[in-house]
Specification:
32% of the residues lie in helices and 19% in strands. It has 412 residues and is α/β, with parallel strands linked by helices. It has a single domain, classed as Purple Acid Phosphatase, chain A, domain 2, CATH 3.60.21. The strands form 3 sheets. A 7-stranded mixed β-sheet has the order 6-7-8-9-11-10-12, with no helix packed on it. The protein has a 6-stranded mixed β-sheet with strand order 5-2-1-13-14-15. The chain has a two-stranded antiparallel sheet with strand order 3-4. Strand 1, helix 3 and strand 2 form a beta-alpha-beta unit. The radius of gyration is 23 Å and the shape is globular. 42% of the residues are buried. The N terminus is likely disordered. Pfam families: PhoD.
């Protein structure tokens, strides 16, 4: 009787959750992808209800999937000074293997996340806090056991290549020919040089792997997941007051990434990222011969607005408006004037394969599932020929307007 009951439950799950079957069948069409980062396992996580309501076929973790390190109090004076000119101990320190395992178990047991795992295929990479230590790179000594624990959290197969390589980078291909979506997940921690070195982020083995991935079988859309922002130039405008980790702090690596995408002649590349505790959509028109979008979703629980008392949150939003940026996508449909969100959020990608031509929507949603920022365009815009034609037409239009104004001025 018990066996019959369990079989009935399994049948019901498969019937009511078609997205599970679609996502895990590599040949099925994928049209909805959700992604997010920065989820404190000890905090309430109501946002999972909105993620589940979006009904993604694939969910992508972009790092800080748990907060696995520890933080000492903010102290300028005293026996243990964690900040300031007399700092004598680091503010952050790593957890033991057992403690990190317990935190992953706590995260995995969240009811909303458990519901998502039943409906969608969950994949992901890591950032610093689940890697094991704030802002850490290749020097972190605990990365072997933290890699194992992350892959356990993601239900990675025991015989997976990811369990044998140095780093958690990987890729997936979804959908049939003509409707293919490739997801490439980078590891920006395991091989990364110190922040001020302008050295490497990925390391030689991962660069060689990435080159093979980008030159491999084509796809209509290629989503590249990076735990840190690729396109944003925020640190260029906020420094030296404060800096955020990003590819912009490794300019030679970022230029190498853009050149590799261009040389691979791969169309449809989109970046998704996390880390910074706010959400935004950035666009760069000078990296490859078509626009490069970077959708930053951060975080599922951690956010800049919630890091300060409610009375100061309007000030945070004003600062977001006043901070100069040349990469951020601005449009009148944004929920906030800055076209950023400092509240908990997740990212969503929707693809309308039936439209002529097919269209894609990149979006940030809040804890209620409301859209706070989005862009939508034909997938064909992420191709060199279409982009170049659009630029030429725009230039011709501008030139025509200038000539017309000049003629009117002469007549007067």
């Amino acid at each position: 009787m018990a066996a019959t009951f369990r079989l009935l439950i399994l049948v019901l799950v498969l019937v009511v959750s078609p997205s599970v079957r679609a996502a895990r069948d590599a040949g099925a069409v994928v049209s909805r992808i959700a992604f997010g980062s920065c989820a404190n396992q000890s905090a309430p996580q109501p946002i999972w209800d909105a993620v589940v309501a979006f009904d993604p076929q694939v969910f992508v973790w972009l790092g800080d999937n748990v907060y696995g390190d520890n933080k000492r109090p903010f102290r300028v004076f005293g026996k243990e000074r964690t900040v300031g000119p007399w700092k004598n101990v680091p503010r952050f320190y790593p957890s033991t293997e057992e403690e990190l395992r317990r935190r992953y178990q706590l995260a995995k047991a969240k009811p909303g996340y458990a519901s998502l795992r039943e409906r969608a295929q969950v994949i992901g990479t890591w950032d610093d806090h689940d890697y094991g230590l704030n802002d850490a790179g290749k020097e972190f000594s605990g990365k072997v056991f933290t890699q194992r624990l992350l892959l356990d959290f993601l239900d990675e197969a025991e015989d997976s290549k990811r369990r044998k390589q140095a780093g958690v980078y990987t890729s997936y291909m979804f959908g049939p020919e003509g409707k293919r979506v490739k997801v490439i997940l980078l590891d920006t921690r395991y091989h990364r040089d110190p922040l001020l070195s302008d050295g490497t982020i990925l390391g030689d083995p991962q660069w060689q792997w990435l080159e093979r991935e980008l030159h491999g079988p084509q796809s209509e859309i290629t989503v590249i997941g990076s735990s840190i922002q690729v396109v944003s130039n925020l640190s260029a405008t906020t420094g030296p007051l404060f800096y955020v980790e990003s590819w912009a702090r490794f300019p030679r690596e970022r230029e190498r990434l853009f050149r590799l995408i261009e040389s691979s002649k791969r169309n449809g590349v989109i970046f998704v990222s996390g880390d910074v505790h706010f959400g935004e959509i950035a666009r760069f028109d000078c990296g490859v011969p078509y626009p490069l979008y970077d959708v930053t979703s951060s975080g599922l629980t951690q956010s800049v607005d919630n890091s300060v008392p409610a009375v100061f949150q309007p000030i945070m939003r004003l600062l977001a408006v006043l901070t100069p940026t040349t990469m951020r996508v601005l449009n009148p449909n944004c929920l906030y004037k800055s076209c950023t969100t400092g509240q908990p959020n997740f990212g969503a990608i929707e693809i309308d394969w039936n439209a002529v031509p097919p269209r894609i929507k990149l979006e940030l949603r809040d804890v209620e599932g409301r859209s706070v920022h989005s862009v939508e365009f034909p997938i064909s815009e992420l191709q060199p020929s279409v982009f170049i034609i659009a630029v030429v037409l725009l230039a011709i239009t501008c030139l025509s307007s200038i000539l017309m104004c000049s003629k009117k001025t002469k007549k007067e």
